[in-house]
Design a protein that fits this description.
Length: about 500
């Protein structure tokens, strides 16, 4: 366990590539001398007691593609540019004093104090005694109101409209055995998800309970309600209702109730379990089906749902699998509604801006091209079985670079070793001949993924084009599968 301050002299390790000092008791500021670490690609200082501002010099480290400063006591304005403009490369959660930064941080704007503000503050100090009496009256009123709300704990409330069922806090507490740890199935950025069974309907549900003490949690709840109120598609996670009321202690309670997905999420199928237990593997056919499902969902959100919606948070853990292994896209907590007045032009971005502003198509507002990029990364993750944050991706090399450098002739080096046909044939041993239908499918999928992750957003296809191509890949694969079987070298 490391304690004390990080020494400035650490900034003299000019050839340092990766620095991980998380889960310690470090205090003080992040040294500005870190700006000298020109070769640094990964910096993890999470879960410490660091304070002060984030050094702006970190945005000059051109190879830095993974920065985790979460769970500290940092404050001040979040820098912009460099790694701070890459939503998938940075984590700043649980730093209550931060403000500003790129749009995907959803932070409040930073305030400056002028001389006029200082005079106003002095005036406020004079008026404090006057308002003291009023504050006492207000406190008494709030106490009476809280007492009244406690008596109404069992009242039902939904933020989705009259077409959705109404459930109370008591209903959800009973369904989840009072939100017991045994029913906890996962934790997310803004709360926890519990499995339960509603007493009246006997339906298995997943209850997403928002931790309203977390910055942005209530906004996320409202965003998700707004998104789910009007969108419906076979590949979007169906919501049963929302609950906005008070709990048994009188505290505000907000939750979303979904159908329970018995096969969990895509992340648990692609990567080894943290508890060391074996995880199931997906066949190529199943991965194709999941890719088609996700492409259809995003095509609907971008082009066919009346009010175009950008998901903004595509990742395997947000892709749920039902009993038939049909994929459904969930978690709309940071979704954005695309406005006609927003520009999707990316002419101001150069081809070297890989990973920068993926969700801000040339501006600082979300763009559909960001979802296309996110979908491409998920395709690569499904085909390679590797996370974009895998330790092997360092020195400025990303999962996109990894696949591109082996495409198309050496794809055997990037394909997930667990990817196998239903018959048990090892894909990595498949003959490389052009007529091999398995290889043709893999090449087509990787080519589509690389197109979706083109460094220039304007060069990417839209999701309607992506969906059309992935349907064609699946149709070709299914047709050829009935005629051929992959041969071994």
């Amino acid at each position: 366990m490391l304690t004390g301050q990080i020494p400035d002299s650490l900034g003299q390790c000019y050839d340092l590539v990766s620095l991980q000092m998380d889960q310690n008791s470090l205090i003080g500021n992040i040294p500005a001398t870190f700006g000298n670490l020109s070769s640094l690609s990964m910096l993890n200082l999470s879960h410490n007691n660091l304070s002060g501002n984030i050094p702006t010099v970190l945005n000059t480290l051109k190879f830095l593609n993974s920065l985790d400063l979460s769970h500290n006591h940092l404050q001040g304005e979040i820098p912009i540019y460099g790694v701070f403009d890459n939503a998938t490369a940075i984590s700043l959660e649980d730093n209550w004093g931060l403000c500003g930064g790129a749009v995907f941080f959803h932070m409040a704007s930073c305030k400056t104090i002028s001389k006029q503000s200082e005079r106003r503050n002095r005036l406020i100090k004079v008026l404090i005694p006057i308002f003291g009496f009023m504050s006492v009256i207000l406190l008494v009123y709030l106490l009476l109101l809280e007492k009244k709300m406690r008596r109404r704990t069992d009242d039902t409330s939904t933020s989705l409209g009259e077409n959705f069922m109404k459930v109370s806090y008591a209903d959800l507490a009973q369904a989840t055995a009072n939100f017991s740890e045994s029913n906890l199935v996962g934790r997310g950025g803004y709360g926890s998800v519990y499995r339960g069974k509603l007493k009246e309907s006997k339906v298995d549900v997943a209850v997403k309970v928002f931790d309203l003490e977390m910055h942005g949690a209530e906004k996320s709840f409202l965003k998700e309600c707004e998104a789910l109120r009007s969108i419906q598609h076979r590949n979007l996670l169906p919501i049963l209702t929302a609950c906005s009321t008070v709990d048994s202690t009188g505290n505000v309670f907000k939750a979303l109730v979904y159908e329970f997905m018995p096969n969990g999420n895509l992340d648990t199928w692609l990567h080894p379990r943290e508890d060391g237990k074996a995880h199931k593997h997906l066949s190529l056919a199943q991965r194709l089906d999941i890719a088609v499902n996700m492409a259809d969902a995003l095509d609907y959100l971008h082009h066919d749902c009346g009010r175009p919606t950008i998901h903004c948070d595509l990742k395997p853990s947000n892709i749920l699998l039902d009993g038939d292994m049909t994929a459904l896209l969930g978690d709309f907590g940071i979704a954005s509604f695309y406005q006609d007045s927003w520009s999707t032009s990316t002419s101001s971005m150069s081809s070297s801006s890989v990973g920068v502003k993926e969700y801000a198509g040339g501006g600082r507002r979300a763009s559909t091209t960001g979802d296309v990029y996110g979908f491409g990364i998920i395709l690569l993750e499904m085909m390679t079985g590797k996370r974009p944050t895998d330790p092997m991706f360092k020195d400025g090399v990303s999962i996109v670079d990894f696949v591109d450098s082996n495409f198309p002739h050496e794809i055997v080096h990037v394909i997930d070793v667990n990817l196998s046909e239903d018959s048990g044939v090892d894909i990595t041993q498949a003959n490389k001949a052009s007529e091999n239908y398995v290889r043709e499918c893999l090449v087509s999928m990787l080519q589509l993924a690389l197109s979706c992750t083109h460094p220039v957003p304007s060069e990417r296809m839209n999701m309607k084009e992506v969906a059309s191509k992935i349907h064609a890949i699946k149709t070709s694969y299914v047709g050829r599968k009935t005629e051929e079987r992959p041969s071994l070298e």
